[in-house]
Amino acid sequence: MPNPTPSPIHAPRLPIALLRALLPRAERDELLADVATEYAHLAAERGVGAARRWIWWQTLRSAPGLTLWRGWREWTGFEPRANAFRPGGAMLKTLFADLHYAARRLRTRPTHTLLVVLTLALGIGGTAAVFGIARPVLFKALPYTDAGRLGMFWMPGWWTEQEFTYLRDKFAGFSEVAAYRPSDVTLREGDSPARLVGGISTSWELFDVLGVRPMLGRAFHRGDDVAGAESIAIIDHGLWKQLGGTPAVVGKRVMLDGTPTTIVGVMPAGFWFPDPAVRIWRPQPIDPERQNGSYAFVGRVAPGGDVNHMDAPLRRLTTTIKERFHYAEGADKTLAPAITPLRQALLGSMRPAALSTLAVMAMILLIACANVAALMLGQVEGRSTELAVRSALGATRERIIQQLFVEVLLVGLVAAAAGAALAVAGLGTLARALPLGAWSEGARFDWSLFSAALLLALAAVSLVALVPAWALRRGDLRGTLVGGRTGGIQGRGGRLERGLVVAEVALAMLVATGAALLVHSVRNLYAIETGLRPHGLAVIDVVGSAEERSADRGRTVKAIAEELAALPGVERSAVTMKLPLRGGGDSFDIDIPGNPAAANTFTNFRTVTRDYFATMGITVHEGRTFDASDQPIRGNDTSHVMSIVVNDAFVKEYFPGQSALGREVRGGFNVPQRIVGVVANVAETALTDSAAPTRYYLGDQTSWFENRATFVLRARRERDIPALLDQARRIVQRVAPEMAVQETTTMDRVLDEAVGPARQVMSLLAVLSALALALGAIGIYGVISHFASRRKRDWAIRCALGLTAERVMAHIVGQGVMLVAMGVAAGLVGALALRHLLASLLYGVGTVDLVAFAGAALALFAIGAVAAFIPARRAGTVDPARVLREQ
Amino acid sequence: MKAADFAPLGVLEEQVLVAVLRAGDEAYGMEVRREIERVAGRDVAIGAVYATLDRLESKGLLDSRRVVSEGPTRRRFALTRAGAGALAETRAMRDRLWQGVDLRGLAALARG
Predict the structure, then answer these.
(1) DSSP H or E segment with residue B65
(2) Is A357:A332 a contact under the CB 8 Å cutoff?
(3) Interface contact A57-B43, CB threshold 8 A
(4) 3-state secondary structure A366-418
């Protein structure tokens, strides 16, 4: 039996506090006294050190047992007879009671509950989904070793094999540099039809530069990229799975572009370069003399260097380039050397869209939180009498706050579940709506997305619960019961509630201005004259193998074209080697007898078929387009003259103020070319580029079709297009099994793509700003109707004394409009502060656009006035006598 | 009383019941823990003891009341009739279990 007299030795505070938190209240004090006595006893007997060890051991070992014990008591409701008259009870018990009460309260007001849950769920689900999609672009590390040391050389897509061969061992400041170019391939495995797979051709150094080894097989070696080397390829993890997913895939032979090729390696899952659509990497036989090329250089900075400070090595490099190469004016590659960090080079263009969408989603979530907080606050005020009674009966403030918190927590959990469900459901739609290309295709639901939703929900809910808790801390609950009948917990102002609505309107204003800016910008883009009639045009892109002879390819293309033209429902059809609005394309030098200024200049060069201009809806301004009189040219017959059609920009550049008809030019081909017609400027490369001089050649005369061709069909009826595309696909497969259909689409879609990410971000933002406005309206409505009902009695007295209903209504609507005005002002400040976020997506609009700002503000004022008018009308039409009797 | 009337006691349950019996009038939580420690020679977490005491009381094997004395008030435990029966039955079952076991052979086996 230990000594029961109090000992001067005190037990350490932390374990005692822990035990205090865990023990049931009814027995807490006496059990703690026992522990303290035992501690003192042990300390006296075996020393303080042993006693300390003992109490810590006891606390930590007891924690799970005590927690289970408490839970067990809650669950079974067991309370020992000995505790019958002890004060207090388990915290958990009140928690269960609170949960029960909260669930009942929420059930009895389904509209309110639904509104709150839906509002939060939309914010949570949307943010989680956008986060899931944008994560690889914004946050994930690049799948390369030490990616911070990788950089992309300037003018990607412009370097030649000759330049690379010369510079290969002279790249100052870099430990290794690889040259690569996009080169999608047709893949045939056995007898299955060919399909197009994204790929690149590269010098052998690529994987050494990136610092990534294949998961199976080998990387490229020196000597893989010389002419005559065996045809090999490395594939990505996804393609490996499709080819069987066994180690035996390494060593397998497949047909790539019609060439038997051995797969030598498989990259690990998660690897991509330069984007996830690329699934095959092939060594490119580098020809030291080849001068046409479209290579990009990617390099690893030598140890000690910094990819952001490459000025000195670049100066040395340009000097080296100048020693060997001489560039024409306007094509000098040594003028603006720069190294872009790889992350910026590969993902930079997608950042603004991903970031702005994520920001908008976060704003919607904040709006939703503000809304729910305001609704909850209104609830607290509406329940002020109930809370005051409970307080008078002995409920502490903490107890009441706990109950409110439990209610919000319950709402939060339900909203998290609904939000996660929404995120899963909306993931695909959102991924398609975001302009993230191949990155968003990989967006899948995973648990990190769910935990993101849950975390967001908990954070949001805590934020929401803070507001009524804070209001309660400041307010005087009992005062409500004793005194004022008109004031709420915070007196008449309801300042907090109104502050929330102002914040909400400000956020909605931010979202709405962003949307308005984009709408304005996208409208500008669509208003650009493209020079063709995109509506009703079906587009079929076909690629063949590069190995096939050009003449054979020409014959195949012609055979397909004839079959396509014969399809019912096709009004006209044509073939071009490159469709307008898709960027890039080939250009040829030009030589005009008697015009020395034309030397060393280039024009766009397009090969088309006879009906091209009529099919595309391109207007002829002068002369004619191709017809039957333009005979094919055989072999190297230089006595013939080719017919060409040029555009307005060509005439303006080379024959200003004269007629170009009948004039002869040279360049590109070794035969003279006579201009037979002039057509309108067409947006040959990008939508926003100014018109460039262009020469159109007849395919029959050049027999020069690259390994890709685009068929365009003008449909008689627009609704036939999907069926036409389907039939076209089958015709290509039947007539030319060695060719692959790369894409079937419509010219309208091509135009949409040319308008670019702004269009997609705009549609998304338009939907989101509608959501933000709707949420804002709910907030304004809630606060104003609460404001009106709180001051009902004041109005009633004044009405009884002669105030007109119109004045009451005007006053209430005025309150709403004032809130909106404050919110709009705050939102404008925010929009100005954040204007750079959207800058890269805008065309023809400043980031400070009065029309957009005014439009957004007007929309908010209109919505605010309507939302305030509903409660105002209710207050204005109420019978004062009834209100006065009511209280 | 038949064995089937009781769910078999767990080891800790049995130890707690015996300790309550041994502690007599002084059978409160901390003393029960100390008693087990003394007899079994091992440190037992006080939380586990409290939880077991409660569970045994809910099963009707123990009863608790508060006794006001000059010291602090405590919940003191005593065996109920059912508790005494369960303990006796557990012991009888153990005896039956060991009947006829060659203890000398066992000891030799344990020594290796």
Answers:
(1) strand B62-67
(2) no
(3) yes
(4) HHHHHHHHHHHHHHHHHCHHHHHHHHHCCCCHHHHHHHHHHHHHHHHHHHHHH
Nearest residue in chain B measured CA to CA from A34? B30
Q: What is the pLDDT of residues A636-694, one digit of tens each?
A: 566 678 899 999 999 998 898 888 899 999 887 778 899 999 999 998 888 877 788 89
Which residues, listed in sequence order, are joined to residue A288 by a DSSP beta bridge? none
DSSP secondary structure string for all residues of A752-783: HHHH-HHHHHHHHHHHHHHHHHHHHHHHHHHH
Residues of A in contact with B73 (CB under 8 A): 30
Token representation of residue A679? 């057509």
CA quadruple A447, A448, A452, A454: dihedral positive or negative? positive
Q: Output the pLDDT for position A177.
A: 94
* Helix A495-527, helix A747-755: angle, nearest 10: 130
Closest CA–CA distance from residue B109 to any residue of chain A (Å):
34
| Nearest beta carbon to residue A69 from set B54, B57, B64 | B54
Residue-wise pLDDT tens digits, B7-63: 678 888 999 999 999 988 888 888 899 999 888 888 888 888 988 998 899 888 998
Among A183, A174, A177, CA closest to A165: A177
The reply to whether B47 touches chain A by the CB within 8 Å rule is yes
Residues of A in contact with B42 (CB under 8 A): none
Least CA distance to B75: which residue of chain A? A82
Contacts of A398 (CB under 8 A, 6+ apart): none
Tokens of A498: 């109104």
Return the residue in B36, B42, B54 with the most chain A beta carbons within 10 A, the one to mutate for interface testing. B54
pLDDT digits (tens, 9 = 90+) for A292-335: 667 899 999 999 888 888 888 889 998 888 888 887 665 678 88
Q: Least CB-CB distance to A35: which of B46, B48, B75?
A: B46
Tell me if residue A339 falls in helix, strand or coil: strand
- CB–CB contact A72 B47 (8 Å): no
Omega before residue A593 within 30° of 0, cis: no
Determine the pLDDT at residue A350.
76
ipTM confidence: 0.86
For the whole model, what pTM was predicted?
0.63
Measured between CA atoms, how close is B36 to chain A, in angstroms? 14
